[in-house]
Design goal:
This is Heptahelical transmembrane protein 4-like protein. One of its GO terms (biological process) is response to hormone. Pfam families: HlyIII (PF03006). By secondary structure, the protein is an all-alpha fold. It folds into 2 domains: about 65-105 and about 155-355, Rhopdopsin 7-helix transmembrane proteins; about 110-145, no CATH class. The chain is built from 14 helices and no strands. Helix 8 (about 160-180) packs antiparallel against helix 9 (about 185-215), helix 8 (about 160-180) packs antiparallel against helix 14 and helix 9 (about 185-215) packs antiparallel against helix 10 (about 220-240). The protein is elongated. The termini are far apart. The structure holds zinc ion. Zinc ion binds near residues 83, 176, 180, 325 and 329.
């Protein structure tokens, strides 16, 4: 009996402990439960301040996810999925354009001269074989395209500005994609990623000037150096300004857009200069047309980015698809691709003509 009583006493004594344990288990969820909770998508209100960028996108946020999970969310659906993939596809598009440009033969004027020489020879042979009476020899110079002194310069026309532009575009697209993928991890990661994103935008703008300026002013070294130096200094200054922690504040969206837009708009100076200098050159006019179209794409991108349309009219309706940032990303790729087409014209212009 005594043993039973002791057992009951012990059970009673243990029970409160067991109950406490149970409560404790309910209050502190298991690791896997915690992990699941951490990986669930949350609303704008539950976000920490550093992830609050657009109050018109209401749901499907990843908040402070572990780095590995943030990386794997590349293959999951959330409100950044399309932002990540649009620029990732853009990166691979520019990678393939770069590889094809690297295998592109130089548009060599010497080769063109040889071709026209062959044409002249075959024309003479044709005239003599079909008309034995013909005694008129076509003067070679009348058929051979006269490349003049430029022929010697052709081999020296470098493609580095074109490749620099392609690298700038690839860097911009890859950094943007990575920033959208990993910024949700922590405040520190977000700070680093946003700086890389700004650096990417600045590198795209600066390197866009290189083919324009280098090939347009290939025969005016003073202006070539002046414009290349100016935009590079402007870019480095913008990069330093973008390092300021305040630069990423949502309310400074207009300042960021203004800085990047003014960098782009300063391109009007060499473009107008080129058009005046080579008003009679079709290549100069074609490239100017491309540059105008590119400007339209980028300007539309700035408008969409700053106004946050269409989600401001219907908050929460464009969380997954159709939000302003996705449209902005598409417009950036369209602008960059238009400039690539202009770059092809610049390269062929100078490789054929020299200066
Ligand atoms: Zn973006």
């Amino acid at each position: 009996m005594e043993t039973v009583a002791t057992l009951e006493k012990t059970t009673l004594l243990l029970n409160p402990l067991i109950e406490k344990e149970d409560v404790k288990r309910e209050e502190e969820p298991s690791c896997s439960h915690q992990h699941k909770q951490k990986l669930s998508l949350v609303s704008y209100e539950s976000l920490p301040e550093f992830l609050k960028h657009n109050e018109f996108v209401i749901n499907y946020y990843r908040s402070e996810w572990p780095l590995k999970d943030a990386f794997l969310s590349l293959f999951a659906v959330h409100n950044e999925t399309l932002n990540i993939w649009i620029h990732l596809v853009g990166f691979f598009l520019f990678l393939s354009l770069t590889l094809s440009a690297m295998t592109m033969d130089p548009m060599n004027a010497n080769a063109m001269k040889a071709t026209s020489q062959q044409l002249a020879n075959s024309t003479n042979t044709f005239l003599h074989s079909n008309n034995p009476v013909a005694s008129v020899q076509l003067p070679m110079d009348a058929i051979t395209v006269d490349m003049g002194p430029a022929t010697e310069l052709v081999a020296n026309i470098s493609r580095w500005p074109f490749y620099a532009y392609l690298c700038g575009a690839m860097f911009c697209l890859l950094m943007s994609s990575t920033c959208h993928l990993l910024s949700c991890h922590s405040k520190h990661t977000s700070y680093i990623m946003l700086r890389l994103d700004y650096a990417g935008i600045i590198s795209l703008i600066v390197t866009s000037f290189y083919p324009l300026v280098y090939y347009s002013f290939a025969c005016s070294p003073f202006f070539q150096s002046l414009y290349i130096t100016s935009i590079t200094v402007f870019g480095v200054t913008a990069l330093l300004v973008s390092l300021l922690p305040a630069f990423e504040k949502p309310e400074l969206r207009w300042v960021r857009a203004g800085l990047f837009a003014s960098m782009g708009l300063s391109g009007l100076v060499p473009i107008v200069h080129k058009t005046i200098l080579y008003a009679d050159k079709p290549e100069a006019l074609i490239t100017t047309c491309y540059e105008m179209v590119m400007g339209l794409f980028y300007a539309s991108g700035v408008v969409v980015y700053t106004t946050r349309a269409p989600e401001r009219w219907l908050p929460g309706k464009f969380d997954l698809a159709g939000q302003s940032h996705q449209l902005f990303h598409i417009l950036v790729i369209a602008g960059a691709y238009t400039h690539y087409l202009a770059g092809l014209v610049y390269v062929s212009w100078r490789e054929v003509e020299g200066c």
